[in-house]
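Record format v2
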Amino acid sequence: MDFRFSEREEAFQCEVEDFINKELPADWVEKSIYWPGGYGTLVQFEESSPQVQQFMRRLAEKGWLTISWPKEYGGAGLSHIEQAIFHERMSYHRAPGAGIATGIGGPTIMRVGSEQMKKEWLPRIAKGEIGFWLAYSEPNAGSDLASMQTRAIEDGDDLIINGQKIWGTAAHVSHYAWMAVRTDPMAPPHKGISLVIVDNTLPGITIRPLINICGFHSFNEVFFDNVRVPKKNIVGEMNKGWYYLMVALDFERLVIPIGGFRRTFEEIVRYAREIKHNGQALSQQPLIRNKLVNIAIQIDIAYMFYWHTAWMLDKGLVPNIEASVLKLVTTELSQKLANTGMQIMGHYGQMESTSKWSCLQGRVCLGYLDCISALVGAGTSEIQRNIIAMRGLGLPRN
Amino acid sequence: MDLGLSEEQEMLKASARDFLQKECPKRLVRQLDEGDEGYSSELWQKIAKQGWMGLVFPEKYGGNGGSFLDLIVLLEEMGYNILPGPFFSTVVLGGLTILATGSEEQKTEFLPKIASGETILSLALTEPTASYEAVSVKTEAIARNGKYVINGIKLFVLNANVADYILCVARTKKTKNPEDGITIFLVDAKSQGVKCNLLRTLARDKQCEVIFNNVTVPKKNIIGKTDAGWPIMKDVLEKATVAKCAEMVGGAQAALDMAVNYAKERVQFGQPIGSFQAIQHHCANMVTDVSGSRFITYKAAWKVSEGLPATADVAIAKTWTGEAYGRVTLLAHQIFGAIGFTMDHDIHLYYRQAKAGEIIFGDADFQRAIVARELGL
């Protein structure tokens, strides 16, 4: 056992840290309202300022937008531990980074796409020229995703798509849908789904905003009315979409904003040390110390799950339990952190960022709302527990 | 970064699992729990032959030259199986103390005998105040005619009932700084004036009241320097705390394994109860607790093993693991239902261990205070 980073890993960590310090606007980490684990305030909706665009360009130039990609496709060819180091540093600084196209679309195309598809899509994704949104959920297919009903019927060289997707995060600011559709209604649910890339600007597509409880336009409901998509946009083989979709989960395992938890915690600790109540710093009160320590411990544990998952992937092991536990503990920590922040800040915790009385940029106030999404998005806590029990511990299906 | 066990450690883990399963079945655990000695000399000798007592001692003292981390691997398995007896007090509390700070003469005399299973040790630190702080050491040792005379009451002393020697932590000087003026004595348990009363406890671990009434100890039996015993104790406690965490991780894993196996077999409403989400989520919560506890325990243990500062990590491990073990055994009870509430069933053995482990060396609130200090709060 050795919990230290190797020399190479340490050097890489410094390189990432230097890059961020140089390229990210100096006041970014203070200004950013992003709450760790939340889906409602993801940075791409905060502002599309020229500075952020510039940062994304620099990331692409460095090959770090596609940091998880193998070298042959223009990736950095790094170990999982190194990728984990990268995401840890990036999230610590609340830096904007990878999206659906680089994190899910690209890697899936590499694995199962045709040569033609790779040529057509990978370079543009790697340069950050195009963005995807995830068109999976439907009004009646949430946790039971395999029951999706949006149909795609073959018609010559095209597919004709009819149906509705919902919770399409960033659909309104992306170029293409990374979409799961039913192509064989007669097959069992898992065996009749295909993946297809759909241009947002095609006739028959209507994108309607859904405003989340943070007040942001983060997701959308999207309607498909006889949308004609060339068959060449089908990813891999027809009717194997469910399998690809599950495999794609592997690529997301380390995209956890682990550093964000530490950063936000440090800010709450600083607040507790600075604010005095009856002449005594809040951090001197035993109850508040206990609350803070409980969070500190759980952040430590979350970090261990994080490094352990990366380490297992490098070893060629399958982090079945660990990956779901990592999602579960970090998202639940997201709520605990918000709740603890609120308890410590009391009345001031409720002040939105625009108030002159707000503290920590109103981040805890917003985070208290955003943390609701953490336990629901990308597989609810209940679904994670099902996965841990059935896939991890081998408990029987009902 | 390498978060895995070495090949040798994997082998040690597997062989310990097999050995204990065979040599220390639950029938024996119960028998020893109910008896007054709390250990079987036959099993003790077999353990010595496995080389476990001397695992971390250098070869010149009859040991195997292993690392502290190796010992942690072994302790996890002891916790998994439950091994009643004085291994922890002899090796972790006594042996490691002598190894770290004993004189060459003491090491040569005691370590080979510990390794061979000949000598059993016990550490008498806590007193009726039930605290692990220096200020609570009231037992006095007064220099007289080139010897020391000890007077006082020690409480919650593990395995003193069968110990050959007791490491007694006593005050030799009264100063403003309570951490100054503490000395550790190696006391022959047969010395005149040593009286040991066995206490009956929740986990049936053999905790004792040890009364020192004008007990005379030669100067050469001081471990480390006179008046400078507290830093030694702090070091011992750090190691013992993380060692106890390893035992607890093993125990929690056992409770989880038992519950999951039962959930797969037990049929209600025509189905294994493990197919119900209510039970599945209990199991998912248990495995989350067990894995998290193992990760932070090994991180702390690795730091101790490498000689790195580990105060915060050890306190974090103890806070979390102590409470997690309790949660895990409670959920296991919930899954076993009524059968788990019987003496015949094994799960209550772990439930008892969990509470004893949570309390010893400072409970979660005590540890949280340390973490708070370390966080700079």
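The first strand of chain A starts at residue 132 and ends at 135.
Strands of chain A lie at 132-135, 151-155, 158-165, 176-182, 193-199, 205-211, 217-230, 234-235, 276-277, 280-281.
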